[in-house]
Design brief:
The chain is an alpha+beta fold and about 70 residues long. The chain has one domain. Helix content is about 10%, strand content about 25%. A 3-stranded antiparallel sheet has the order 2-1-3, with helices on one face. It is globular, with a radius of gyration of 12 Å. The two termini are about 15 Å apart. It holds the Pfam family JmjC. This is JmjC domain-containing protein. It comes from Volvox carteri f. nagariensis.
């Protein structure tokens, strides 16, 4: 299924997630981010592969029922 991704490269200062789940982060923290602090975002489609380089903070929200291999 589709997944919504948010990523920050290692050199970016990001707002702390304080142990929030992905859904909590998107609902509670994301809306308050100013435009210059927004992450790199995209939607991954079924069958697509995403490579996340080491050190990159990321948050993934399942938009549909899916299976992930990490």
């Amino acid at each position: 299924g589709r997944k919504r991704w948010a990523l920050y490269p290692p050199h970016e200062v990001r707002v702390s997630d304080d142990g929030l789940t992905s859904l909590q982060w998107y609902l509670e923290l994301y809306p308050s981010l100013p435009p210059e602090k927004k992450p790199i975002e995209f939607v991954q489609g079924p069958g697509e592969v995403v490579f996340v380089p080491g050190g990159w903070w990321h948050c993934v929200l399942n938009l549909e029922t899916s299976v992930a291999v990490t």
